[in-house]
Amino acid sequence: MSASILELSGVGKTFRSADGHLRPVLQAVDFNLRDGEIVALLGQSGSGKSTLLRIMAGLVKADHGQVRYRGQPLSGPARGISMVFQSFALFPWLTVQQNVELGLEARGMPKAEREKRAEAAIALIGLAGFEGALPRELSGGMRQRVGIARALVTEPDVLLMDEAFSALDVLTGERLREDILELWQGGGMPTKAMLVVSHNIEEAVLMADRILIFASDPGRIRCQLSVQLPRPRDPESADVRALIDEVYALMTAGAARPGRSHGTVEAGVATPPPLVERLPAADVARMDGLLELLAEPPFEGRADLPQLCEEAGLPDAELLPVAHALALLGLAQLDSGDLQLTPLGRRYVDGPNELRRGLFGQQVMAQVPLIAHIRHSLEQEPTGQMMDTPVRRLLSEHLDDAEADAVMKTAVTWARHGEVFEYDYNTGKLSLPAGDALA
User: Fold this and answer.
1) What is the CATH number of the domain that holds 386?
2) Is residue 289 part of a domain?
3) Less packed terminus of the chain by CB within 10 Å, N or C?
4) How many Cα neighbours within 13 Å face the side chain of 346?
5) Which range marks the domain in which residue 243 is found?
6) pLDDT (tens digit, 9 = 90+) per residue, 148-164?
7) Is 22 domain-assigned?
């Protein structure tokens, strides 16, 4: 077995919300990144994957546990670790050459040497001739190549890639991924190991020697899968398709309640109750569309998730939350990487719009405690109205602002579709629906 370059032992991280509550983001993460391997990290949005990468890069300090780089405790940014961000993170007023030179300049490298190193990195990543271009003159794929060249120019041992291909269109992302793998296989990269955070299951299978499945709330490694297939890997081969199916099954195992499931206090850190569980970000139109697709030939009520992804034209990052939402509401069931209509889901698909709304309202009341709580609170108000302030305060005690907004948006969207309550986005007022459909 190869030597470990990065080693994490019992790593944990908590953040303090505005009202002082501690929110666990990572818990007891044990992980070794070994010399000569590519590891892919898969998990839901908000599960702490990006925080983990920043801890590994030395940009964020862990609250618990230890991070070692080449056997030594990591106490800050290490010269041998570079990171590529999803957002490109280029300075728009600097040329390609100047953007790539930045890290070398910060280290005090003489001008002539850093120019030579930057030119070599730019050529390596396929951008020779664009040294004088500004970021606005480049395509998205070219801008991300600049970001990768900037990471490689320091000749790092470890390259951390945080959703590096997700902001690109499918073909551009595939081409860039193939070029990176070609450089890796050919020994053209100085990097000894890579950790790739991704939402794309096929991408993980095609790239990685190991795949880690990350659990949420708090983030932790739930399972890992070794990939023994030689590269380059044909995405249509039987072995690759079988492995993709296996990863889908692991990703969706126990997905009926993808958010928070209990309220406890452990080591002084409050774990939120079901009322503030994270909801899958799925809009009703996509849920309806996926159910209808699932009910029709060739699926006839049961579909392999990779095949369903392809038929629906949705990437994993968009399809999986919809599948999770359907499982949460009891309209479908996730089983070994397949999505299957339940009897209730069949009744929903076959019914008219009025029946669909009624069933949807019934299920969100039964399965989403936050929606039921808001409904019951409104029923206690003489006017049938209330401001959203106490609900948002409750969410903010356990979620950051972006997560709280996402949960509130999903809850409102689902509740309005099911005619459970109404919401005025301009005033922040919640109210019982006209005619009180569930009374």
Assistant:
1) 1.10.10.10
2) yes
3) N
4) 8
5) 4-252
6) 888 888 888 999 988 87
7) yes
